[in-house]
Amino acid sequence: MKNTCITYILSSVMVGLLSLTSVSAQDHKNDSTENKHRDYIPTIGKKDYDDQGKKIIYPRFFGGPTFARVDWGFSRLIDNGSFSLSADNQFLDYSKASNFGFDVAQVGLRFNDLFKIYVSTGFEWNYLRLKNDIILDTKEVPLTYAESETDYRKNVFTSTYLRLPLTFEFRSRKNRHGDRAKIAVGAMSGILLKGTQRLKSEEFGKQKFRDNYNLASFQYGAFARVGYKSMGLFAKYYLNDMFENSPNQQSLNNFTFGLSLWF
Question: Which DSSP letter does residue 59 get?
Fold first, then answer.
């Protein structure tokens, strides 16, 4: 089945999350104040905790500008359920693929000391360092490319999205050091901002081309995070095809995993 390998990976992540939460939840009942709040996240506006030593009343709304959930990790293309690219997609073969993103605003509701739900927005980039000396066509539909005689030292294909995740976050009670483990799962969506191909060669120097390159104008998927204090791990699977109006790239999806800061 198409999503068998992804289901297995996400299931393994969730088992690890639950184990981590169980260990960290052994010590200390929840305090009525958060005067020693240790899970610091750079945030402006109303927080989901009180850092002034006052008693917390639930439910508690929070929201405002933030700089949080900074994701930095690796990407893998999944072609019809396989990590190996089909013959139609070999031109997208890559030596390195990565993912980077962060949130800049959020609004949500903390129901109690252990659970909150929130919507956030931010930006996300996916990078493919292509192996082949190709130039993607900025005008044709479906996605097409031309082989180049130039030997490119760098050929990077980037997609940039405005991301809009919905998150359900659970955290353990504080341990004896006042720290917590956290689990977050949810649905994510994104709106395409641009596609970019960056080239570097001895012959032409640095070149940059921008277009939508038939990239999906709207992306969606699922994600999971597990963390301790303000750091953690993430995994994301994009359910939509990476490209639209491009039949040869049907069932080509993206899977990313890596580290999260200020989670």
Answer: S
Q: How confident is the model at residue 139 (pLDDT cuts 50, 70, 90)?
A: confident
Q: Is residue 47 in some structural domain?
A: yes
Instruction: Give CA–CA dist 223/237, Å, rounded.
Output: 6
Q: Are 51 and 31 in contact (CB under 8 A)?
A: no
The structural domain count of the chain equals: 1
pTM strictly above 0.90: no
In this prediction, residues 185-195 reach a mean pLDDT of 98
Contact criterion met (CB below 8 Å) for 125 and 100: yes
Name the token pair of 43. Answer: 């945030």
Range of the domain at 54: 4-26+41-162+181-214+230-261
In a domain, 81, yes or no: yes
Q: Quick one: how far is CA 226 from the chain centroid?
A: 13
User: What is the Cα 19 distance to its own chain's centre?
Assistant: 23
For residue 165, give the nearest of 251, 104, 115 by alpha carbon.
104
Q: Is residue 132 part of a domain?
A: yes
| 24 pLDDT above the threshold of 50 | no
Mean pLDDT of 83-95: 96
Residue 50 near residue 58, CB atoms below 8 Å: no
Measure Cα distances from 90 to 34, 213, 253 in Å.
53, 17, 14
Characterise 229 by phi-psi region: left (phi > 0), alpha (psi -120 to 50), beta (else).
Answer: left
